[in-house]
Amino acid sequence: MVLLPRPTPVQTLHDPLLERAGVELLIKRLDRVHPLICGNKWYKLKYNLPAAREQGYETVLSFGGAWSNHIHALAAAGRAYGFETVGVIRGEAPRSLTPTLRFARDQGMRLHFLSRADYRRKHNAEIVERLRTEFGDFYWLPEGGSNALAVRGCAEIVADVDQAFDVIACACGSGGTLAGLVSGLAGRRRALGVAVLKGATFLYDAVRALTAADYDNWHIDLDHHYGGYAKTTPDLLAFMHEFEARHAMPLDQVYTGKLMSALYDLIARGAFARGSTLLALHSGGLQGRAGLA
Description:
It contains 12 helices and 10 strands. By secondary structure, it is of the alpha/beta class. Helix 8 (148-159) packs across helix 9 and helix 11 (234-247) crosses helix 12. The protein is globular, with a radius of gyration of 19 Å. It folds into 2 domains: 10-39 and 150-292, Rossmann fold (3-Layer(aba) Sandwich), CATH 3.40.50; 41-145, Rossmann fold (3-Layer(aba) Sandwich). InterPro entries: ACCD_DCysDesulf (IPR027278), TrpB-like_PALP (IPR001926), TrpB-like_PALP_sf (IPR036052).
């Protein structure tokens, strides 16, 4: 079983802010890697799905919220590659499903809702046994798809970029993509993660745990979460609207909008030296735009 990505372009942004700062900003369009298994999620699944098959599993179970890009991608991948999928969803079952969860259900994913209290202890033996009793044997994929095999896949993103750059940046939710970039850089150049959830200091430990070597060429920005995971503000939405109008590039309010807003803010404040080239990952997640309605 081999998962092959579509080639994805690198887009150069042209903007008065960038010209004044003397900074070049490139966007790696991972949102085009697959129409449904999108962005960084494709790379996280690249080695996990073959591993599940090689180990004899027919079912893949994972975790996420009601707007999870990972749940969306896993459901599509399960249908495309012949796996049963189970999505363990944070919170009580709603009266009506979000568009993300409707899509997952329509792809054949079985949805299982856990109270927030139980979700916080999802690694507890009692919870795990309950899941195995209901769904049988399954390949366990962590929340966000972030494990060692996901890091291996995301490390290849660095090699897929032909252009020279000084800093590579990504939105950061569970830490797996950033850990992959750090591994792929292997101490050369720098990586920046923009945390999309509030109070995310734990991401430092998460990235260190997922990264084999003790690299110090990376940093996480904790100041551009806009109130927390999947939360927005008028300022964020205004930035997205202006950005999309200027560059004809769609963003989502959960991940890529916060990443690009953070980079523009940091550039305006002189956080990057003149002559620097930044490479930002457009990690997809555009299915989450349905939440703007």
